[in-house]
Amino acid sequence: MALIENAKGRKEGxxxxxxxxxxxxxxxxxxxxxxxxxxxxxxxxxxxxxxNRIEDVDTFLSEQKLSNxxxxxxxxxxxxxxxxxNLEPDILIFKIDAKKQHCYIIELxxxxxxxxxxxQSEKDLLLKFQNHISSKLRFTTSVHICSFNQLDKKKIVExxxxxxxEEMAMTGKELCEILGLDYKKLLHSRIHQQKKNLTYFVDELxxxxxxxxxxxxxxxxxxx
Length: 224
Known about the structure:
- By secondary structure, this protein is of the alpha/beta class.
- The protein folds into two domains: 4-45 and 186-223, no CATH class; 52-180.
- 53% of the residues lie in helices and 14% in strands.
- The chain contains nine helices and five strands.
- The chain has a five-stranded mixed β-sheet with strand order 1-2-3-4-5.
- The longest helix has 28 residues, at 23-50.
- It is elongated, with a radius of gyration of 22 Å.
- The mean pLDDT is 91.
């Protein structure tokens, strides 16, 4: 997971500064916002790094007999291949065995709540890409939006304003099962970063003059 201490944020004129009237606090909160955004990118990098990746997609797909196994293709690898378009999903997963050759087209999300417009656009992107590659692959295909931290598909559908079906919803646990990754281990590695972020946030918050003074007053009232 991304760390607040590595985020840049906006030092002046952020919306948070206008909201609270404090430059120090505004800068800290803008760094937190930047960190939240980057957590999804970090999650994708982690999954890609742990998976059995295909870098040269065109060479892989040109083989007459494809090897059995599960193979991940990142967005950057898609962009270098004949599958590229202006609508690439986050990852493709090719699952090949004696019975079938299937391609999962996946948009990976760290959260599970989106507005109606965003939900519809995510679904449209996946369906357009599916249509784009349908004639280029010897695979059956399916499209999915994976909310990595949500274990209930119904809640994923609700979070996406019912713009997708339960068949299109994918949990993080399901994604890890397809890729042969340890879901609990991935979650545990992120929990460690959560503790670092919490400690750093409190340390930086206390450095904000207005917050420190207010806390001292509130704690004094509380003790009384």
